[in-house]
Amino acid sequence: MILAPPNIQAKAGADVASYDFVRSQKNHTLIFTKESIIRNCSCLADIHDCDYNLANLMCNCRTVLPSTMEKTNYNSDLTIWFTDTSVLEMLLNFTRVCDLKLSFCGTAPLPTEYLTIWGLRKLRVKNKVKGQFPEQSVTISSSSNNEKEDYLAMHNKDRQMLVYISFLDTSLFNGYSLLKSYSVENVSSITEYFPSLLYSDVFSTSDNKSYVVTFIY
After folding, report:
1. Structural contact between residues 216 and 123, judged by C-beta atoms closer than 8 angstroms
2. pLDDT higher at 20 or 74
3. What InterPro entries is this protein classified in (predicted)?
């Protein structure tokens, strides 16, 4: 048997280890806008917030036209860099995402608008505005001990599907106050519990669904 020199063996071992490490990394989605262009990227590593050049260099990115954007369910982590609320509304309103990071890359204060997000369990927000709270996070959970760790869970006791829905106030990105959230569990009908809620007519009523409704502000 012919053996390779030790230095070649070591290099080969390092290459294999590096390949295994990269292969084991979990891709996450990064979406950002720059000069009215939307870039949808798949990244192996976290990119420094709002570093557009680095994202284009390190991630696999493609340009997406706003007219072709469709509502998507994100099964992996999603990060969005944005400068105005219109982009968030287009990308997130009534979209299903479990783990979300939102980085405000603008400088002008944002108005109070509301986004509706399905399945949200973890939210991280970061802003460049000179506020008191530049980076904050919140985790949404249920008091049920029997639920699975995904955005839809089935109770063993009553066989009800647990559905998470969150309403996000965009003014929180100004960083002037502590991020807060308030959840209401065991909501069988959103229209009955919250009749004045915006878009309440789009929520279906079902006998086998129980909603966890969270307000983030």
Report:
1. yes
2. 74
3. ECPIP
